[in-house]
Amino acid sequence: MDKPLAISMGEPAGIGPDLILQLYENRAKNELPPFCLFGNAEFLQARAKRLGLGLNIASTSVAEAGKTFADALPVVSIAGLISDSPGKASALTGKVVIGAIEQAVAAVQTGTCRALVTAPIHKAALYHAGFKHPGHTEFLAYLCAKGSKERRPVMMLAHNDLRVIPVTIHTPIKDVPSQLTRASIVETVTAAHYDLRLRFGIGQPRIAVAGLNPHAGESGNIGSEETDIIGPAIDQLRYAGINVEGPFPADTLFYPRHWRRYDVIIAMYHDQALIPIKTVAFEEAVNVTLGLPIVRTSPDHGTAFELAGTGRGSTRSLLAAIRMADELTRGRD
Ligand SMILES: NC(=O)c1ccc[n+]([C@@H]2O[C@H](COP(=O)([O-])OP(=O)(O)OC[C@H]3O[C@@H](n4cnc5c(N)ncnc54)[C@H](O)[C@@H]3O)[C@@H](O)[C@H]2O)c1
Ligand SMILES: N[C@H](C(=O)O)[C@H](O)COP(=O)(O)O
Where does a divalent metal cation bind (predicted)? Predict the structure, then answer.
C-alpha cells in the first residue's frame, strides 16, 4: 500500500483547516488517498464543530496514520497557543503553523510520508512571529538543504496544460530587475525542464520565456534586460539541448493559441505568471514546487479570512493539490 501524504494545516484563522476537514468528511466521494494532517487536534475538533461536521479526529503518530485514515482523521498534534478564531490571525499561532510544516517535511524526507501538501499560511502573521522566509517555496528549499547549499526552488502553478513559473518569486517589483540574472533564468528553466520530464512525464518539454519589458524591450529600445540577460540565458539553455524559445512579449504570450504551443511559460516575476492562471483557473489550479528532492503541492489560493469558519470556501483547488501530490508519487515508495 502507498504511504500516506503529509498535509500541513496552514493558518488556523484561514480557510485551510475548513477545507481539509470538509474534504475528509467526504473522503470516499472525493476518493482521497490516505493522508496524515500536521496541526493541532484540539483546534481542529473545535473548527469541525463550528462547521457542523461530525467526523472523528485521532491524535496519532505518522506511522499509524495510514491505518487510522478510514475511521478517523489522523492528526500529528503540535502543541501551542491556538484557538478557533476565524479571520483573526495572530503571531502567537506561528509556532504551530511553522512546526506543522517542519514536521510534515521531515515525515516526507524520512520516507514515512510520500509527498507534502500545504494549506495556505498568512505570511504577515508568520513574519511577526519571526519567520524569515518569504513563503513556503523558499522555506522548503531551506529545510531541504539541511545545512548544505540551498537549491533554487521553482514555483510552478498548473492547471491542465497551462503551467506558469515566475523566475523571481516573492520579490518586490523594485528588486525584480536586479534579481533577474542569466544564472537565475538558466537555473529556473533547467530545474523546470528536469522535473517536467522526471515527475510529469513530458518527454521533451517545450518552454516559452517571457520578456520583462513592454514588447519584450522592442529590440533594446524599451529596456535592455531582453538583450543583455534573458536572450543570452535562452541561448545558453538551447546550447544545452533544452527546447526553449523567447523572449516573447508577455502581453500576448497568454493568448491561448500562443501558450498552447508550450508545456510551460517562464515569466519574469510573480504577477506576470500568476495573474493569467488565477484568472482562468482560480478554483482548480495547483501550486507545485519544483527543483527540490521532495514533492510539494498546495492550492493556488490564500487564507480567505472572510470565508473561514463558514464552510463556503471552495475545496476544489485543495482537492486538485492532493490529487496531484498523489499522482506524482503513487507507486514510487
Ligand atoms: N499557499 C499559500 O500559503 C498562499 C497562497 C496565496 C496567498 N497566501 C496568503 O493568503 C493571504 C491572503 O491572500 P489574498 O487575499 O491575496 O488571497 P486569497 O486567495 O486568500 O483571497 C483572494 C480572493 O479569493 C477568495 N478565495 C480564496 N480562496 C477561496 C476559496 N477556496 N473558495 C472561494 N473563494 C476563495 C477570497 O475570498 C478573496 O476574495 C495572504 O497572507 C497571502 O500571503 C498564501
Ligand atoms: N505566491 C503564491 C500565490 O500567490 O499563490 C503564494 O504566495 C504561495 O507561495 P508559497 O507556496 O511559496 O507559500
Answer: 170, 215, 270
42-75 pLDDT tens trace: 999 999 999 999 999 999 999 998 899 999 999 9
Ligand 2 centre from 252 Cα, in Å?
24
* pTM value > 0.95: yes
| 113-154 pLDDT, tens digit each | 999 999 999 988 899 888 999 999 999 999 999 878 888 999
Q: Quick one: which of 26, 29, 30 has its CA closest to 321? A: 30
153-291 folds as: Isopropylmalate Dehydrogenase (3.40.718)
What HEC string does 182-219 produce?
HHHHHHHHHHHHHHHHHCCCCCCCCEEEECCCHHHHCC
Domain layout of the chain by residue ranges? 1-151+292-333, 153-291
Q: How far is the CA of 308 from the centre of ligand 2 (A)?
A: 18
What's the 220 CA to ligand 2 centre distance in angstroms?
Answer: 32
Indicate whether residue 275 lines ligand 1 (CB < 6 A): no
Question: Is the distance from the beta carbon of residue 168 to the nearest atom of ligand 2 less than 6 Å?
Answer: no
| Cα–Cα distance measured from residue 321 to residue 307, given in angstroms and rounded to the nearest whole number | 20
Does the annotation list 270 as a binding residue? yes
* Confidence band, pLDDT 50/70/90 cuts, at residue 333: low
* Burial class of 314 by CB neighbour count within 10 A (0 to 12, 13 to 18, 19+): middle
CATH 3.40.718.10 corresponds to the domain 1-151+292-333: yes
User: What's the chain's average pLDDT?
Assistant: 95
DSSP secondary structure letters along 43-76: HHHHHHHHTT----EEE--HHHHHHHTTTSEEEE
Does the ipTM exceed 0.90? yes
Start-to-end C-alpha separation, the chain: 9
| Residue 258 is assigned to a ligand binding site | no
Same topology, domains 1-151+292-333 and 153-291? Answer is: yes
